[in-house]
DNA sequence: ACGAACCGTAAGCTACGACTTACCAAGCCG
DNA sequence: CGGCTTGGTAAGTCGTAGCTTACGGTTCGT
């Protein structure tokens, strides 16, 4: 379940979420700290963080009353793997097209 | 030229668009051909292709009355570069956190 | 040259997602 | 122990992205 919402690309599709993700990537950040650097309210940041966490892109850690978020290397690795796959298929298709230049296989 | 952002991620955020992108990645495809393999109409595919093309992820080539689309390696490379940057920053932040054990940045 | 096939664009409707305010739970500090 | 701070959740509003049908332009085939 939550299968559709668990994809990193879908999560990073939103520019605000991407901004949050980039801020978190620079180091562990608390929710209020993020909200202070963004033009949106704290609950909005919380919701975005929930989506990012659900997508496996960030992890959270409770420290006192604050909650520190940091990027999850596994999530980023998954995205890289996906792009590598597409990249590979595109290159293979291109190579095949170069070989079969003369005519079209019908 | 620098006008279009790296919203390649934004473009791939939509699952339908991602499906189109993956189909195109397997080789040059025409619009009607894509529409035939998808549960949406041909105009919808056209609109998605426009977004992908605007994001620099695909390129189009007019062949007779058909229009072949294929992936743009530069677009994929840009996405990979972005992820690499985030990855690098995350690793640097983690290394810094390990070295500077008990402090936290403002 | 006429018809058919392919594609892009316009206009419009619907649905989802992003944001806000309000409220409540949990942990620190006086 | 009481107040203050921090965060997550609920309910509601509003914008916009995505899809459809309808139309016009362009090219190939006969």
UniProtKB/TrEMBL annotation, chains A, B:
Residues 1-91 form the HTH arsR-type domain. Keywords: DNA-binding, Transcription, Transcription regulation. It holds the Pfam family HTH_5. GO terms for molecular function: DNA binding; DNA-binding transcription factor activity. InterPro entries: ArsR-like_HTH, HTH_ArsR_DNA-bd_dom, HTH_MetalResp_TranReg, WH-like_DNA-bd_sf, WH_DNA-bd_sf. This is DNA-binding transcriptional ArsR family regulator.
